[in-house]
Write a structure and sequence with these properties.
The complex is a heterodimer of chains A (about 400) and B (about 260). With about 400 residues, chain A is α+β, with helices and mostly antiparallel strands. Chain A has helices at about 5-20, 25-35, 40-45, 65-80, 80-90, 95-100, 105-115, 235-270, 285-310, 320-340, 355-360, 370-380, and strands spanning about 120-125, 140-145, 150-155, 165-170, 185-195, 200-205, 215-225, 230, 275, 280. The longest helix of chain A is centred in the middle third of the chain and has 37 residues, at about 235-270. Chain B folds into two domains: about 1-210, Rossmann fold, CATH 3.40.50.620; about 230-260, no CATH class. In chain B, strand 8 and strand 9 form a beta hairpin. Chain B is α/β, with parallel strands linked by helices and about 260 residues long. Chain B is about 30% helix and about 25% strand. Chain B is globular, with a radius of gyration of 22 Å. The longest helix of chain B has 17 residues, at about 35-55. The chains are: A alpha+beta (about 400), B alpha/beta (about 260). Bound molecules: flavin-adenine dinucleotide (2 copies). One flavin-adenine dinucleotide binds near residues 280 and 286 of chain A.
Chain lengths: ~400, ~260
């Protein structure tokens, strides 16, 4: 067994940490306050070629694995950027994955180099208001009109839709009733232009990550040429499926990084803040929760690396990826909560930075997959219990 | 133009340095190691010279432990073409003069037109190397430079040194030694492609014998490191500002003897 990173992975870790830490916590506080997209941050990562990390070399990327992408996102989060910094970069790793795996050669040649270069801002449209977690119930429809598809419907929670130039969109191409035996068939993935004459965008105000927009979108006769279907018509959901494990791993490692960033600040504060003539960290009521949170974050991190390793070695990793995301979302949130508590009243104040992390990390218990659905996966597919829904 | 950049691996600037169990050195557990920041200015400047001239070679060199290879790898990731790692039991406990002799010997072998140092390594802050190496080579040296321009014919360099409130401008024939001051440039972060390419670039091991050098006992020996006594607490002078100022002036004059 070998737990060591390679020399190259160590370098990636170090250099990403340096670049990410060149953006101060005040930068992120400001972005959060003004709900401003972190353009400068993304530009810095774009300029140094990080956005193409998983895009294969023949399409202008670096062709690295989920492990390296996880190192990238971990260091961004550990630097204190939170989901404000991680989500935009995440979107150059996860939504491109189904394209890399399933798109036609022509589609890949056309778009992957531009994604790698950071010239495309992408949105991702699966979730719908009336379907929620049950993706088979989506109502967005695509109809074939000669050589193009015409799409109508509604999506919700679309990250990036304010600025996106492309959207990876899942739509029904065969009604659910006609595939009743296999309700996940009959859906198709499109890599569509984000055509604002056909898509109306409404931003959703939310608890955290104000810098990175979330939206509801209304699609009205969006036209997509048939060449822009990703993979096979009717198989869209299955094309997404093999990218879901990487997404869970990335989310897990982001939560780990955010938890570490919060703990780092809290531990420092616990050493310095004197109340009752002693540093507060001298009280076990402060020290033990910090130690406990540290241990849980470390444990969750191990599961993330294991899952990433399995994925990169082409092995099944559903159990590990779901466990990684489940435990990391818990541990990361606990770490932020303990950190906030350590700061006392100041934890509640914006200028001590932890409250932003606390608000942001809450997301990972809900999205991209909820804790309950991760547990459903483990119950059914790992423990072999009967399906509950 | 061939440019040689000697660099040193040092503890990260954020490190809280602790004296080790052996008081001759520091406790290295948990330390993150980096390329000394002034050396990064030197690497950056060398790369810019090469890029501006459209040709050339940048060679990073360090004398240090096995771990120091990481620092060379970072320079390669920034864009240096190759690296030399001077590592030999003969150089354990080397003092500045021993290191300068080794560097001068490797510079003679490599015969670059320019040697670019950082003004000092931020660990022991000796700042001796550029001048010592230049002296051993018999080359001209300008230290703490804030700007430089190589002449089109590649025969000389115009360098601006920082002095109080002004720049000291020199025209120096090449080959020469320069050392970089903060402000010379803003060092780049390595690109991902640079990091991946670094793996394929050469780091050549150089032993003392390869340079025709034998172990020469260090003349400068560290006896021990001592922590500074804790700083005495500050004093707050209470009362009305006008009265407090009088007391402050009296105290500065009589107690601290500062004015
Ligand atoms: C900030 C943010 C960004 C997002 N970005 C995107 C994006 O870019 N693209 C996109 O397509 N989506 C995005 N999402 C959507 C996200 O994936 C969904 O919110 C998530 O999948 C949950 O779906 P839902 O909100 O409809 O919850 P629902 O499906 O309505 O679920 C509500 C609750 O019921 C639970 N539940 C449902 N079914 C079961 C069951 N069978 N057993 C046990 N519990 C169950 C859920 O776990 C949850 O707690 C984003 C969401 C957020 C908050
Ligand atoms: C929104 C808000 C409104 C407020 N309104 C008012 C107000 O109107 N008027 C007012 O006077 N104050 C107000 N406060 C202040 C509030 O009462 C204090 O924040 C609170 O008493 C904690 O003090 P502190 O923030 O200085 O934390 P600290 O005393 O610095 O404590 C930091 C952490 O250490 C822990 N700790 C400290 N000592 C020990 C120990 N011996 N053993 C175990 N744990 C220890 C604390 O529980 C805390 O978790 C407000 C605070 C907030 C956030």
């Amino acid at each position: 067994m070998d737990f060591a990173f390679t020399e190259q992975q160590e370098m990636i870790k170090k250099e990403v940490a340096a670049l990410a830490r060149s953006f101060s916590l005040d930068y992120w506080l400001e972005k959060d306050r003004k709900a401003e997209y972190p353009v400068e941050f993304i530009e810095a990562f774009k300029k140094n070629g990080w956005l193409g990390i998983v895009i294969p070399e023949e399409y202008g990327g670096s062709g690295l694995g989920v492990t390296e992408a996880s190192i990238l996102l971990h260091e961004i989060c550990a630097a204190g950027a939170g989901t404000s910094g991680a989500s935009p970069i995440h979107f150059y790793v996860f939504p491109p994955m189904p394209l890399i795996k399933h798109a036609s050669e022509a589609l890949k040649r056309r778009y992957l180099p531009r994604i790698a270069a950071g010239d495309i801002i992408m949105s991702f449209g699966v979730t719908e208001p009336n379907a929620g977690t049950d993706t088979s119930r989506i109502q967005t429809r695509a109809e074939k009109k000669e050589r193009r598809w015409v799409i109508n419907g509604r999506k919700v929670w679309n990250t990036n839709a304010q600025h996106a130039t492309k959207i990876l969109l899942l739509a029904r191409t065969t009604p659910r009733e006609q595939v009743a035996q296999k309700p996940f068939k009959g859906m198709t993935l499109f890599f569509a232009d984000f055509d604002r004459s056909r898509i109306t965008v409404r931003e959703i105000e939310k608890l955290g990550r104000a810098a990175v927009d979330s939206n509801e979108i209304f699609i009205d006769n969006l036209e997509v040429p048939e060449e822009d279907v990703v993979g096979q018509v009717g198989e869209g959901f299955y094309h997404l499926l093999d990218s879901l494990n990487p997404e869970r791993i990335l989310t897990g490692i982001e939560a780990v990084g955010i938890g570490k960033a919060a703990l780092e600040r809290a531990v420092q504060y616990a050493k310095e803040r004197v109340v009752f003539d002693r540093p507060i960290g001298k009280n076990q009521a402060i020290a033990h929760p910090l130690a406990q949170a540290w241990a849980k974050v470390e444990t969750a991190e191990l599961m993330c690396w294991k899952a990433a390793w399995l994925f990169d070695h082409g092995r099944p990793c559903g159990a590990e990826a779901n466990t990684a995301k489940l435990m990391a979302a818990e541990a990361g949130f606990e770490a932020c909560d303990v950190a906030l508590q350590t700061f006392g009243g100041y934890g509640y104040a914006k200028e001590f930075y932890v409250e932003r992390l606390w608000r942001e990390i809450r997301l990972y218990k809900i999205a991209p997959v909820s804790q309950q659905m991760a547990l459903n996966y483990l119950s059914e597919h790992v423990l072999g219990l009967p399906k509950s829904y | 133009m061939k440019i040689l950049v000697p660099i040193k691996q040092v503890p990260d600037t954020a490190t809280q340095v602790k004296i080790g169990a052996d008081p001759k050195g520091i406790d290295t557990t948990g330390i993150t190691w980096i390329v000394s920041p002034y050396d990064e200015y030197a690497v950056e400047e060398a790369l810019r010279i090469k890029e501006k001239r459209g040709q050339g070679e940048v060679v990073a060199v360090t004398l240090g432990s096995e771990r120091a290879k990481e620092a060379l790898r970072s320079c390669l990731a920034m864009g240096a073409d190759r690296a030399l790692h001077l590592s030999d039991p003969a150089w354990e406990n080397a003092d500045t003069l021993t290191v300068a002799r080794a560097l001068a010997a490797v510079i003679k072998q490599e015969a670059p037109q320019l040697v670019l140092f950082g003004r000092q390594a931020i660990d022991d802050d000796m700042g001796a190397m550029p001048a010592q190496v230049a002296e051993l080579l018999g080359w001209p040296c300008a230290s703490w430079i804030m700007e430089e321009t190589i002449s089109d014919d590649g025969k000389s360099v115009r360098a601006g040194r920082q002095v109080e409130g002004a720049l000291d401008i020199f025209n120096i024939p090449l080959p020469c030694v320069l050392s970089a001051q903060k402000g010379l440039n803003e060092p780049r972060y390595p690109t991902l492609k640079g990091i991946m390419g670094a793996k394929k670039k050469e780091i050549k091991d150089v032993k003392a014998a390869d340079l025709g050098l034998a172990a020469d006992g260090a003349q400068l020996l560290v006896v021990a490191l001592e922590a500074l006594p804790p700083r005495p607490p500050g004093r707050v002078i209470p009362g009305e500002p006008a009265e407090a100022v009088k007391e402050l002036v009296r105290s500065l004059r009589e107690d601290a003897k500062a004015i």
